[in-house]
Each structure stands twice: as C-alpha cells, then as structure tokens.
Design goal:
51% of the residues lie in helices and 7% in strands. It is α+β, with helices and mostly antiparallel strands. A four-stranded mixed beta sheet has the order 1-2-4-3, sandwiched between helices.
Amino acid sequence: MNDFLKRLQACEYLAHRYELGEFQNLPLADEPFVRGWENWLENPKESPFDVNGILPGVSDGTVSLRLEQTPAGRIPVLRTRTRAGFERVRNALYPGGFKTGIPASVNAFTVIAKRPPLTGHRIIILNRAGYSALSGKELGMEEEEWLEKSMTLRLNHEICHYFSLRVLGGMRNHALDEIAADCAGQLAAFGAFKAALQRLFFGISEEGGKILPGGRFSFYIKRLCGASVDAVLEATDAALGSLESWLAENPDMTLESNRPRLVTNLLTAGIPKIRRFFQESLMIRYDFAIKCNSFAQYFASVPLNQKDQFFYAFILTSVVVYTEIRHDFIMKNIL
C-alpha cells in the first residue's frame, strides 16, 4: 500500500462519527425484552425464559444479575468474578465466539445475544478485574479500592455504548467510541477526565508516541497499517489532551446530569474535531470518507500526478467545510 492510500486509510478511520437524528426525551423507554428479565428477577416462574438454564454461574451466585437504569433505558447487567466466568457467560450469550481474539485487558462487553431465547437482547457483561488489566499499585491505590473503581469505570463505559446504540444507532470497537465511553467512566469513577490516565488505559506511552504491547488501543486499530497507524495515534493522543482541557474549562459538563449531552457531543464530533484543528496534510478529514473504498480502488489503479491529487483534495475539502458548518449548527441549536 503506497503512502497516499495509507493516508486515505487514516482519513477513513478518523472520519468515523455518528449522525444526530431526531431529538429524544431521556431516559428512553425500556426495550421490550427488558420485561422478561424483570419477570425473572421478581418471579422466575412467570418469566418467558430460565436464566439459570442459559447462563452458567447465576444459580450458584458466582454471576450476579440486576437491571441497571441508564439514560437509554434499563438493561440487564451480569457481573462475574473471574476471567474464566466472564468468558463462559460471553460464550453462552454468543455461541461460536468472536471472530477475533479478545485481549486480556478487555473485561466488559455490551453484547447483542445470539442464543435463543435471548436472541436480540442487549446485555452488559462486567468482570471484576483491574481496568485495562492494570493493578492498583500502578494507579497508586489499594487493590480493593482499585477493583471498585474499575467496576464503576466498566459499568459507565458500557452504559455509554448502550446509549450510542439506542440514541445514535450504533456502536463500534473504534478509538472515538472508546474515548467517549472511557470519558464517561473516568467522570463517574474519579470526577474528572485525565489524558495521562487515558493513555494508561489505552496502552499508549506517556509521551503519546508509541503503542504498548497488549494494550487496548492496538485492538481498536488492528485493521490499520504503517503510516496510517501513526496518523491515527497522533490524532487520538492530541484529542485526549484537548478533551481534558475543554472539560477543565467547562466543569458543568462533568456533572452526571450532563453526561448524555457530553457523550452525544463527542460521538457526533469525531476525533479530529475533538482535537480542535485539521491535520496539515494533503487529505484532510472529510465526512464521506467512511464510504471511500471505491476512491481507494480508483486511486490505486490510476496514477495521479500532484496537480490531480490537489484537485481531488480541493473537492473533498469543500465537502469538509460544508459538513463542519452543518455539524456546528446542530450542536448549537439542538444540544
């Protein structure tokens, strides 16, 4: 892959953000499947399904279950005590497993179950372990305190994903989604967002220029390669610093009552907008880059001289300006 296509790949990745649809009053009403879980908790005999027969560990108490209230409605939350128990529950809800391996640093999921009779149910699974596979010593706190903070981080992280799924129409294993979710988690657990702490959670070096082995960030960019990885890492790291500064300047946005608004702003802005400036490169962020596979194939097959490249960049940049103005208008007049 040549440098131009690597740059295009980075632009496609960084173009990811969600569109804000019709405004909805919060909290949303529960999804229909929640009633069955409520019935099981109150009177298992009246439930349309037997949780004990589906999920290993619920009957003996090694897996706990409760309905958690969120801005997107209530959702079943399963808590496990060990990594093995976490994987058994995950596999029970998602027979056949996942196509890619899950790092040891990942101990939480919002899954859409694929096992009958729970098919289509959205369920949060949390495992009691140090967040991002970190120990209390690494965070400068007692291990038990850190485990409690970790569960708070995980719960609010996954609530953010569920909110994104219901309010914005999707969720992805992407750096943008993770920034928003971890921001919500940090605010719930610590009352503030710190870029240095987020680098630690992501597995990014303190100076922000290197991805550490086994860190979560490598999982979110596994399809990128070469220079595109460096570009995405640079943009993400800069966005973390900008987000910390912005929240310090706007303390009201750290309040729990403003959490849905904050999360919506982040997820509809995108990493480059959080970063607050455009990259000084040929291919600037553009809104429809996420649909640019045909462009990539064309550029790969047709040799373009520098004049042609700048012509296409001009057209794409014009679209950027329009979409940014439109997005800012929505942010100011709706949120």
